[in-house]
Design brief:
heterodimer, A: mainly alpha, 3-stranded antiparallel sheet, 11 helices, 3 strands, 66% helix, B: alpha+beta, Alpha-Beta Plaits, 4-stranded mixed sheet, 7 helices, 11 strands, disordered C terminus
């Protein structure tokens, strides 16, 4: 994370294109343009994979196939969408891995008691940096999930190339990984929108208010603004 | 596949209402007597001709067998097996094709609605119009029958000549058999015929003779008389075939749980929002970090 930003004549939007973790007026740039573009690239390929995969998973979602031109289109499209999803996920992983390094305080954050406190909006951790333990866990869990989906997906893509037992195992692995992934994404979307107002904007325009940063990521706020005691 | 739309009993990837069942038809079956099969392969040719399948290159595998295994363009294969028995060798021939299970694993595994159907008369058929060529049926079949057709991108297998059967004819393979080791009729009649043949074989010294109609898949639409009924694997048949556990776990456990989990997580998020509400920034907080 960078230190306090030099005051420049650049506007918020312009600053948010090139740098993050800098203060611009009453706002702080949380995600620069490249970060946001990567996130939405991954999200787009995720939803393309979802739309083309769900109708193959169960006929309950059969109507989704119609959006893409039928189930045969889905069968062709899904593997390619999945590959693009995994490739963009890898880029995102590399892009964010430094910020996501697990610290002892993250382990502390992830203790069940703390998680319940977080969920009930009690007892904020004053040391939470740019990402809290839950966000880091989500980051690594989805990276692992993407890997699992890729490995099992390749087997299902070419049904004749692999032994039957491997194919059967891959169906189960692909299913199980997807279910966990989908549940994680539901909570990811909820936390990124309705649950924590001000968060969605950080992934659209790239900025958050100072007050938002103080509330949700006080450690990061101190690092970025230089205000208050620095985290040790 | 012909569109036997009035006679569908079960259909793949269907939730509700797949059964049309306007006609009530007796369940049919092939009867194969391996003890009178002479390995002439007339059934292989008849199958190729009637179904207009492309010619597949034969492959020398060290026996009289036409090719190592079934093919998307070769649905009926006589398997030649040599087996050491009682100090000598027995030469076992068996007609291999789709077994038309009462409880078809291919249909259970198939994700494409209506791509695999089971008619009222028990015939299990692929509808290539709806097949997406994913190959999941392969993992569901305990007999390793469905094959992916690389040229069409669809799965293919024996239809039990449903087009012939539905107009009152017997399947092409049965029609062609010169020794009478193949018969076709209602399942009931074929089982009765098989049992009487088994009794005959037992009376002639083949004490282990048995009729192969495996209960693990609810019985099959092909009943096979085996002289060595205690060793179906000698004929390349699984001793106790079932729809694989992986398919059952996937379709009956994992998938419902998954649907429940996904909708459940949406409901949980909504419930959390209603009870805890959003965690909002309080503007009146004032400047500066909150004290730890």
């Amino acid at each position: 994370m960078s230190a306090v930003a030099p005051q420049t004549s650049l506007g918020v939007a312009a600053m948010a294109r090139v740098r993050e973790d800098v203060v611009v007026g009453q706002e702080i740039v949380r995600h620069r343009l490249s970060s946001r573009a990567l996130h939405w690239t991954v999200a787009s390929f995720f939803f393309l994979s979802l739309l083309s995969g769900l109708p193959i998973w169960t006929p309950i979602f059969g109507w989704m196939a119609a959006l893409l031109g039928g189930l045969s289109v889905c069968r062709w499209l899904h593997p390619w969408a999945g590959v693009l999803f995994v490739v963009s996920s890898l880029a995102m992983f590399l892009h964010w891995r430094r910020d996501m390094r697990l610290l002892p305080s993250d382990r502390e954050w992830l203790r069940p008691r703390k998680v319940v406190q977080y969920m009930t909006h009690q007892g904020d951790d004053p040391d939470v940096g740019k990402y809290n333990g839950g966000q880091k866990l989500f980051f690594f869990a989805t990276a692992l999930g993407a890997l699992g989906l890729l490995l099992s997906g390749v087997v299902l893509w070419f049904p004749l190339t692999f032994p039957r037992l491997l194919m059967a195992a891959s169906i189960l692995l692909h299913d199980l990984t997807f279910i966990l992934f989908a549940v994680a994404i539901v909570f990811h979307i909820y936390l990124g929108t309705a649950a924590l107002p001000g968060t969605f904007g950080s992934m659209i325009r790239g900025t958050v208010t100072k007050a938002w940063a103080r509330l949700h990521h006080p450690g990061w706020y101190r690092d970025v603004t230089g205000e208050g005691t620095r985290r040790t | 596949m012909t569109q036997q739309t009035l006679e569908i009993r079960r259909s793949s990837a269907s939730l509700w209402g797949e059964k049309t069942g306007m006609r009530h038809l007796p369940v049919v079956s092939k009867y194969i007597d391996t003890t009178t099969c002479i390995g002439c392969k007339a059934c292989e040719v008849a199958c190729q001709e009637w179904n207009d399948l492309e010619t597949v290159s034969t492959q020398q595998v060290g026996t009289y067998q036409t090719m190592p295994t079934l093919d998307a363009d070769f649905w009926n294969l006589i398997r030649f097996n040599e087996q050491e028995f009682d100090g000598g060798v027995v030469w076992l021939m068996r007609k291999d094709q789709c077994m038309h299970c009462e409880d078809p694993g291919c249909l259970a595994a198939c994700p494409a609605p209506g791509a695999i159907v089971q008619y009222e008369n028990g015939i299990v058929d692929v509808n290539p119009e709806k097949c997406i060529g994913c190959g999941y049926c392969e993992t569901g079949c305990p007999f390793d029958v469905p094959r992916f057709h690389a040229k069409t991108g669809k799965m293919a297998k024996c239809t039990l000549c449903v087009d012939r059967v539905s107009v009152g004819l017997e399947p092409a393979c049965i029609k062609a058999c010169p020794t009478g080791c193949l018969h076709f009729g209602t399942k009931e009649d074929m089982v009765a015929l098989g049992n009487s043949r088994v009794e005959q074989l037992k009376a002639n010294g083949l004490a282990q003779a048995a009729l192969y109609d495996p209960p693990g898949v609810g019985g099959t639409g092909v009943v096979t008389v085996l002289a060595h009924g205690n060793h179906p694997e000698w004929y390349g048949l699984p001793a106790d075939p079932h729809v694989p556990l992986t398919v059952r776990v996937w379709k009956s456990v994992l998938r419902p749980l998954g649907i429940f989990a996904i909708f459940g997580s949406v409901i949980a998020a909504f419930a959390h929002f209603m009870t805890e509400g959003p965690k909002e920034v309080k503007e009146a907080e004032g400047e500066g970090p909150r004290s730890p």
